[in-house]
Amino acid sequence: MARASDAKTQTRIQREKKQIILEAALEVFSAHGYKGATLEQIANQSNLSKPNLLYYFDSKEGIFQRLIEELLVSWLDPLRKFSATGNPVEEICAYVQRKLEMARDYPRESRLFATEIIQGAKHIHPQLAGPLKQLVDDKAEIIEYWAHSGAINPVDPYHLLFSIWSTTQHYADFSSQVNAILGHNAPNWFVDASAHLDRMFRAMLTPPTKA
């Protein structure tokens, strides 16, 4: 059977259908993870039949891999913007804010990524060990230079990045917990979290002579 992906040039309708499927798959995968998701669930969420879905993607893994590829592009973007030529404390705090904005604006993508990691990262290990590790190593080298030069307080660059990821992505990955605890204040979490995390990381990083 011919597939939409076989054509060198897809029509507008084919592109739109594939985006509908990817949007539906994001909803299903972020809720159930790769193992728990099924093609039937994705088809139902897409308002398509399973055979129609399989015209556009040949397998559940194919859909998932396409989602992960697109996710990693946006996921790494905030770290790519991290500049070695800027003010060290401001650069790191700006990165914290960009990661928090992603938790606010892309909670399903964050949960999809977290679920895949928890389940062993089978489908994204090459990306983690390749592009992500290289980018993190590059930025860790910058942070380490800043620490050794006294521009920021001594800090392990890798554990600093892990701390930023955990404190920002918490608001997406554990949104049910956040909402349950904050109650009627939950809609305002971003403003309060933004101020709190900025104070916390700024206080940790700023040398006494520059405070």
> Might you state the CATH topology name of the largest domain?
Tetracycline Repressor, domain 2
CATH-wise, what's the superfamily of the largest domain?
Tetracycline Repressor, domain 2
Percent of sequence in beta strands: under 5%
Mean pLDDT: 90
CATH class of the largest domain: Mainly Alpha
Inertia-based shape: elongated
Total E-strand runs: 0
Query: Which architecture name of the largest domain does CATH use?
Result: Orthogonal Bundle
Structurally, the number of domains stands at 2
Order of helices and strands: HHHHHHHHHH
Query: Number of helix segments?
Result: 10
Helix percent reads: over 70%
Q: How far do the termini sit from each other?
A: 67 Å
Given helix and strand content, the structural type is: mainly alpha
User: Quick one: biggest sheet?
Assistant: none
Ranges where pLDDT stays below 50 over 5 or more residues in a row are none
Query: How big is the Rg?
Result: 20 Å
Structure described in brief:
This protein has 211 residues and is mostly helical.
Structural description of this entry:
The chain is mainly α and 211 residues long. The chain has 2 domains: 4-58, Arc Repressor Mutant, subunit A; 71-210, Tetracycline Repressor, domain 2 (Orthogonal Bundle), CATH 1.10.357.10. It has helices at residues 12-36, 39-46, 50-56, 60-80, 88-105, 107-118, 125-149, 157-173, 175-182, 189-205. Helix 1 crosses helix 2 (39-46) and helix 1 (12-36) packs across helix 6 (107-118). The model has no long low-confidence stretch (mean pLDDT 90).
